[in-house]
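The records we work with from here on pair a chain with its fold. These numbers are not coordinates but entries in a learned vocabulary of local backbone shapes. To see the layout at work, look at the sequence and tokens printed below.
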Amino acid sequence: HDEHDSHESDVADSGAVQMQKMASIDPATGNLTDVATLPEDFPTVLDATYEPVSKSLLALAAWSTDTRPWLIRIDPATAALTRLRHLSDVWYSLAADGQGRLFLVRQQDGALGVLFTPLSGQEPVPVGRGTAAGAAYISSLAFDRDAYRLYWAMCGSDGRAHLLDINPLFASLMLMMASG
């Protein structure tokens, strides 16, 4: 594991006042260290992943005034962010493959998209058909770099939980489990 894999955004709610900070978790000890207090205008981070080729912490972020997310880069030492792209579609759930590619899921139809050079500011390229259910509530991608497989967990618009195994080489989806 790279030390940057442990950086997460931590949000604590204290009554009517929302306090946000970025913290680092030491994977060996579990110790939490504050990195920075986030400014009030810091966006909501929808999902984040560490991309090892560019050594970047990348995230999908939403500002309250936008209907579509941004792809951003977050400095893990300071929490400073760089806006890379205001996405044309609503993409979420991202995962890096360790070879410089970033995979995302499109909300509208669950299509798999890829960014071949995430820092380029380009729009994700759809590479696979989505699921008819699409993701409606919760969605998360995880990349198994050893097997070169993506796993997508989501709650579909049909109200059921789904776990899909995605082969990114062929952009094929296989339903592993559905419940509900």
Q: What stands out?
A: The radius of gyration is 16 Å. The longest strand covers residues 135-144. Confidence is low (pLDDT under 50) at residues 1-17.
